[in-house]
Please model this.
Amino acid sequence: MAKLEEIDTDEYEKIMAANKMKRKKYSIIIPTYNERLNIALVIYLIFKHLQESEFEVIIVDDGSPDGTQDIIKQLQDVYGKDRILLRARPKKLGLGTAYVHGFKHASGDYIIIMDADLSHHPKYLPNFIRKQIQTGASIVTGTRYVRHGGVHGWNLMRKLTSRGANVLAQTLLWPGVSDLTGSFRLYERSAFEDVISSCVSKGYVFQMEIIVRASRKGYHIEEVPITFVDRVYGSSKLGGSEIVQYLKGLVYLLFTT
Model:
């Protein structure tokens, strides 16, 4: 089969039509906290770029005080409650548990996880699907650290911190993927269920843990280059405590995987 970059629009549409005939469904899990200004645009772009796919969007909101849930309910009126599922929780309980919670309500053959702040542009979703169809991979992960990937909107310190975190993890864990801290991924349902059941992390370390454990279990993992764009609206959830938890998680994985 042609390489990803060689597939033209007509061929892609044929692939997607064939995939649709096989009734493949994608469950997109999006955790939110104070994303009122971003969530409507994210949903619009998902529907724009996945017109040829069957999918549902599962939004796990952790009790956002800014009215995020009100916006989601309005989106349900537009797109339908069968396409936009709001599965709220009363408070912030951790990123990893948000994915577990969303998975409980997912009906798709494949699970896609992504952020709500537009740092993960939905335009890359067709690339994830194409790559999975081409290769039969159990996991397709977006990466900033290969050719055609990158970061936009970060200052030098943020770039060095992210790059340093990945280099450190690569050196100690040898996971076989270039971007351990990313959270834009597609999973085969059975692979996601298997790997997530062995994860113990609840916060940002979860992204690293799940891909490391998948690698150790021998799952076929492919990568797709993405450009990560820093959020325009709202404030970053990443702080000093998350960095400390990352380092603790790194040491834990070093001795348990």
Observations:
- The CA atoms of residues 201 and 242 lie 12 Å apart.
- The beta strands are 25-32, 54-61, 84-86, 110-113, 139-143, 150-152, 185-188, 221-225, 227-229.
- The chain is about 45% helix and 15% strand.
- The radius of gyration is 17 Å.
